Amino acid sequence: MNRRTLLKSASLLPFVPELTVESSPQHLARKRSVRFAYVGDTHITPETTPMKGVAQCLHHVQSQTDKPAFVLHGGDVIMDALKEDRSGVQKQWDAWHTVMKAENSLPIEYCIGNHDVWGYDGAKSDPMYGKKWAVDLMRIGERYRSFDRNGWHFIILDSVQLTPENKWYTGFIDPEQLEWLKTDLAKTNSKTPILILSHIPIFSPTAFFSESNVKNGNWAISGGLVLNNTPELLKLFYQYPNIKAALSGHMHLLDRVDYNGVSYFCNGAVSGNWWKSDVYQQTKAGYALFDLFDDGSIERTYLQYT
Predict the structure, then answer these.
(1) Which of 148, 151, 180, 275 is the most exposed place for a label (fewest CB within 10 A)?
(2) 223, 170 Cβ separation under 8 angstroms
(3) CA proximity to 1, closest of 67, 47, 69, 56
(4) Which residues on adjacent β-strands are paired with residue 130?
(5) What's the pLDDT tens digit per position in 233-281?
């Protein structure tokens, strides 16, 4: 599929039918530091619908009058690598890179999602097994990392850990990574605002969306929906008032929680209901524009691209 075919088939609208704008309290004399687009849960496959959909989303991002400087991908780039063999996974990554090469001109930073991890039973001896393949194809060097951009410090975490039998996953920040995180926070200037990105939410009410999570009258929230060491992270974050935001995806749902000075954003999904429809629960397929300001305040605008 080439650029001309995608452009013909992706009908872009000059306006957005619905959008959600959320702002921190207004501050006098603040200046915007950077604008970026959060694009997540693209779940691409080589089929026409997801390839056209991702292309259409990227067109929408880049056609903004006030164009973002870069893209943060929140994870689950491909449909699934947990249960696919090498050939099946390669086809999904090839589809992603085909669309990105033809349709995207913005720099992109990635976060690993659970469906990006190769967990196929017959591949355990392969050097690409687990997260290595995704790290290489995303060109991110490490599964977690940090960088600075326009006066803000960005921390990208690896929130997906395979279970001992390597057949599924749970969400938490492993001890090695947690020690790195503590060191990274401690060495960051206390006046520098910090944004944290994880695929699985750190703190979110989206885990309560389904009645299937109620067992015998009690909530039973899986570690695959919200990080199971969230209490430890909340205590850590409380020590650093310059942590201003924590972004996530995974749930395909849209929410915002403000707690102890940190805004936790769950940011919908480009794929909506995994490309079966453009609505999952009550959240429509889309992406988010984030504006970060020099005083540490944040604005999010959620956009539908169809």
Answers:
(1) 148
(2) yes
(3) 47
(4) 118
(5) 999 999 999 999 999 999 999 999 999 999 999 999 999 999 999 999 9
C-alpha to C-alpha distance for 302 and 275, rounded to whole angstroms = 19
CA distance 252 to 270: 8
β-pair partners for 161 = 170
Whole-prediction pTM: 0.90
- Rounded CA-CA distance 223/39 in Å is 23
- Which tokens belong to 111? 């976060």
Query: HEC string of 40-102?
Result: CCCCECCCHHHHHHHHHHHHHHHCCCCCCCEEEECCCCECCCCCCCHHHHHHHHHHHHHHHHH
Distance from C-alpha of 93 to C-alpha of 75, rounded to nearest angstrom: 13
How far is Cα 93 from Cα 90, in angstroms, rounded to an integer? 5
Contact 234, 203 (CB under 8 A): yes
Angle, CA of 268, 19 and 254, to the nearest 5°: 25
Beta bridge partners of 256: 265
**Would the CA dihedral through 67, 254, 267, 269 be positive or negative?**
negative
H/E segment holding residue 218: strand 218-219
* Contact indicator for 54, 303 with CB cutoff of 8 Å: no
82-131 per-position pLDDT tens digit: 889 999 999 999 999 999 999 999 999 999 999 999 988 778 888 898 99
